[in-house]
Amino acid sequence: MDTNSPPLALAAIVHAGKGSADALLLEFVQELRAKNYRVCGLVQGPEIQKEGHSLRTVQDLDKGTLYPITQNLGSESTACCLDIGALLEASEVLRQALESPADLVIVNRFGIMEADGQGFNNEILALIDQGYAVLTVVAHTYLPAWREFTGGLAVELEPERQALWDWFENSRQAA
User: Fold this and answer.
1) Comparing C-alpha atoms, which of 146, 134, 156, 140 is closest to residue 15?
2) Pairing of strands 39-50, 53-60
3) Beta-strand (E) ranges in the chain?
4) More confidently predicted of 19 and 113
5) Measured between alpha carbons, how far is 175 from 124 in angstroms, rounded to an integer?
6) At a CB cut-off of 8 Å and minimum separation 6, what does 85 contact?
7) In CATH, what is the architecture of 10-174?
């Protein structure tokens, strides 16, 4: 790692998995908005029922639009159930953030698709390249891939409210 590189305004809440950081992230977004900060992007949305199956969603923070990101592959399937087409559609929210005066852009996860070099990686890179502060969530499972993707330059946060605020304030001062 180049110690002369400026710090990236990029952080991940490192969590144990299965949505353990989602409530904290939503509370943080609400607190930021209550202080008139502009926050946009995608967060984990509620599960929805479609044809008798539960599907995971991501939700646009501005419009509230839900994007079902999983698909039913049948009960015997062991394949990844993420719907690449739906992820591509949802990624438009992050591309639109590049045109906004956001103080913070949320990317709901750095998960299996991102660890494989896909998912929202291009959008994350474009956002940090344009100087946006970006916050995501990463499970311990994907932490090695996250570190490789970021070159070790991103901040890894404990899932604690004060850690989020400290990072956000520091990222604003560095900008």
Assistant:
1) 140
2) antiparallel
3) 10-15, 39-50, 53-60, 66-68, 104-110, 134-139, 155-157
4) 113
5) 17
6) none
7) 3-Layer(aba) Sandwich (3.40)
Question: What average pLDDT does this structure show over 54-81?
Answer: 73
Give the torsion through C-alpha atoms of 83, 133, 138, 157, to 10 deg: -170
Largest Cα–Cα distance in the chain?
54
**What phi and psi, each to the nearest 5 degrees, are found at residue 107?**
-115, 115
Distance CA 149, CA 160 (A): 24
pLDDT in tens, 132-166: 999 999 999 999 999 999 999 999 999 999 999 99
| 4-38 confidence digits (pLDDT tens) | 445 579 999 999 877 679 899 999 999 999 999 99
Give the per-residue SS3 of 58-99.
Answer: EEECCCCCEEECECCCCCCCCCCCECHHHHHHHHHHHHHHCC
Cβ-proximal residues to 129 (8 Å cutoff; 6+ apart), any chain? none
Cβ-proximal residues to 96 (8 Å cutoff; 6+ apart), any chain: 40
